Amino acid sequence: MVCSCSHEPAPPKPNSKFRIALWIALLINLAMFLVELIGGAYAHSSSLWADSLDFFGDAANYAISLAVLGASLYWRATVALLKGVTMALFGFVVIGKVIYSYMQGIPPEAVTMGVIGIAALIANAVCAFVLYAYRDGDSNMKSVWLCSRNDAIGNVAVILAAVGVFGTGSLWPDIIVAGIMAVLGLTGGYAVIKQALKERKIKVEVPMNCS
């Protein structure tokens, strides 16, 4: 008699197209991290500064995803869990930056915000496009898709904030957008954590010959 229990599917063969998509996203995110870090400091923009941290976090997440391609579902889910926690922590960090910017009361430089925001939107649109096909995969694939999607949404908001700052001379549009980005980080992190925890509970099948 052959006995078996509920099991984790065998680790998938690494997807070469997904690997290439991750490398493209990784390099783009590293480049935009440096651009927004410098630009955000120059423009005194909370939303650009927050987006630069997000680019750095995404680059790290893509690197981790590349490292676990072909690993078991348990380990891919474990890495995704870490990424989900990181996304949520990013949300809390941005909230702290928003509070600090409000206390400082310095309006950001709108033109720099707008130009860098447009460049970041183009970069994230490319990332979202190359990762779109993997949006319904496991928690690891889902997490990289959510990162790019949230970034593209955030970049549109940064551009709108730049327009608002330019028109009003107030720091509030920048603060509001940074707050939206914090919420995206928290909700995206929750979605990834939830799916990763579910996948980690899947047991490994061990076929046995029973006499």
From TrEMBL:
Residues 22-198 form the Cation efflux protein transmembrane domain. Keywords: Membrane, Transmembrane, Transmembrane helix. The chain crosses the membrane at residues 20-43, 55-75, 87-104, 110-132, 152-169, 175-193. GO terms for cellular component: membrane. The keyword Transmembrane helix applies. It is a multi-pass membrane protein. It is found in: Membrane. Signal peptide: none annotated. The keyword Secreted does not apply. It comes from Acinetobacter tianfuensis. This is Cation transporter. It comes from the Bacteria. InterPro entries: Cation_efflux_TM, Cation_efflux_TMD_sf. One of its GO terms (molecular function) is monoatomic cation transmembrane transporter activity. Its main location: membrane. GO terms for biological process: zinc ion transport.
